[in-house]
Amino acid sequence: MSTRVAIVMGSSSDQATMRLAAEALEGLGIGCETRVLSAHRTPEALREWVESLEAKGVRVIIAGAGGAAHLAGAVAALTTLPVIGVPLIAPNAIAGGLDALLSTVQMPRGVPVATVAVGEAGAANAGILAAQILATSDADLAGRVRMMREGMASKVLAG
């Protein structure tokens, strides 16, 4: 399984939520690498890591952070790879993570970050969205994504 997605989070306390992105990817047969790096506390290490990704075969980056949540934007500023931002609920969160959501979604023109829901649903959806992006040029993966979606529909219909 080659590593085509990179997951970064701002704190080790984010791992419990961000593991859902990794699980979604792994369930679809997509390799990922995971790092803990801070946009504010480790900016040089973040830059070095982001700049190394494309050469390693990474095609999509998922970035999760809470509070000021500048991580996804900082990553997007350093690469032209697609970046998916996952707003997380930090211990000092405002309105259940609204601060992180707004910090992630409100990017300036020209530096986009695709943003998913706050928390666990967002982390899982980030993994699935990354798979869907990769599936645009991978017919086998597209088939696995379709099978996953059909399985979800079957569970709903079964009641």
Poorly predicted sequence stretches spanning 5 or more consecutive residues: none
Strand content: 15-25%
Helical percent range? 40-55%
Structural class: alpha/beta
Mean pLDDT: 95
Largest sheet: 5 strands, parallel
How many β-strands, per DSSP? 5
Which value, in Å, is the CA radius of gyration? 15 Å
Q: Say what oligomer this is.
A: single chain
Instruction: Identify the overall geometry.
Output: globular
Please count the helical segments.
6
Element pattern in H and E: EHEHEHEHEHH
Query: Strand order across the biggest sheet?
Result: 2-1-3-4-5
In whole angstroms, the N-to-C terminal distance is 34 Å
Q: Key features?
A:
159 residues, alpha/beta, five-stranded parallel sheet
Write a structural description.
The structure is a single chain. The chain has a five-stranded parallel beta sheet, with helices on both faces. It is globular and about 45 Å long. β3 (60-66), α3 (71-78) and β4 form a beta-alpha-beta unit. The relative contact order is 0.17. It is an alpha/beta fold and 159 residues long. The chain contains six helices and five strands, in the order βαβαβαβαβαα.
